[in-house]
Amino acid sequence: MAVHLQRTIVARTKKPTASVIFLHGSGDTGQGIRAWIKDVLNQDLIFQHIRIIYPTAPLRSYTPMKQSMSNVWFDRYKISINCPEHLESVDSMCHVLGSFVDEEVNAGVAKDRIILGGFSMGGTMAMHLAYRFHQQVAGVFALSSFLNKDSIVYQTKLPPLFAMCQLGLEMTQRERLPCSTQTHCLYLEKWMTVRDGRNCRCWRIRDNKV
Predict the structure, then answer these.
(1) What's this model's pTM, rounded to 2 decimal places?
(2) Which residues pair with 140 in a beta bridge?
């Protein structure tokens, strides 16, 4: 039976030329991660011609919560980097989320103009989706995420997709992502903002004609 996921979409145009699929962490929703980002930035993550898609994971029994129902992308035997991955649920969700990538391509967005990413469990999910099933995308990012020690992702011949690992990781001021031409690139830009009296390092995705 097909799984239909709810989604929240932020876009300024009906004909975007690039897309970002942003996956929330365990127990959250697409609307929830959008609200969190908006709270951090004091505005929506929005661009002139980039569509931001926030899917919501389905409710499923989650083993680390003693089989309680939760909005999670996949199951885990336990929350530990040293335990095996629950590949049955990971692979099943990769196929479901792959339909989002296909929908964007069918809507006219080139696959190498799509970025996959997420927060916590969403970042892990994005790495499986990009590296194992959709290596032609422009890039993948993961915020405060981890892959299990013996993850099947490490068995994949990895293209240069990875954009960032954890919040707080030191990176160069501007990190370019692979793009289809030399004159039109997606890149991540770091800037500082003041929040609650403290300097916070944040990231934004920019679409730049160089």
Answers:
(1) 0.77
(2) 116, 162
